[in-house]
Amino acid sequence: DHFGFDGWLVNLEAAAAGMGAVHELLELLTVCLKQRALVLVYDSLDRTGRVRYQNSLAPDNKAAFDACDGLFTNYWWGAKQLAQSVALAGARRCDVYVGVDCFARNTPYAAGPACAPACAAARAAGLSLALFAPGWSIECGGAQCASEDADAAAAADRRFWEALGLKRLYRD
């Protein structure tokens, strides 16, 4: 309703005393916002409430996934984790948002446009894509002086999105 806001990402990266309250929160937000916004949970807590990234939809985070509209996975995944996500999600595989860090911190893929194969792998698996830190295109993508040359910044940003195969999402 406000400013084109599409939804909520619930990102808990500190241990929780128990997951019951977390699941209740996710369910409540999802029910209350159903017609207006998506509620996604980040892949950070296991079923006991410990911080333990699964890098996929996994048995340890499936209950959280089931309590809301989708899961945003951590970034350290490979083909095995994509296949596991597809298998566990079933008909909801589009509700698994595969995390791709555009800065490629601790990932098996490289930064910037070089993360294109990771984006393609997520799409090929039939999963959705969640880009983290797409500001890379301005911060590191050849347009570091965006305030001095807006045209160069826009061109660098466009090249970044095109390299990821997401040109159709780019709006001039």
Automatic annotation (TrEMBL):
Pfam families referenced in this protein's UniProt entry, alphabetically: Glyco_hydro_85 (PF03644)
Molecular function, one GO term: mannosyl-glycoprotein endo-beta-N-acetylglucosaminidase activity
Alphabetical list of InterPro entries matching this protein: ENGase, TIM_ENGase
GO CC aspect terms: cytosol
Domain Cytosolic endo-beta-N-acetylglucosaminidase TIM barrel: 2-162
Protein name in UniProt: Cytosolic endo-beta-N-acetylglucosaminidase TIM barrel domain-containing protein
Native species: Emiliania huxleyi
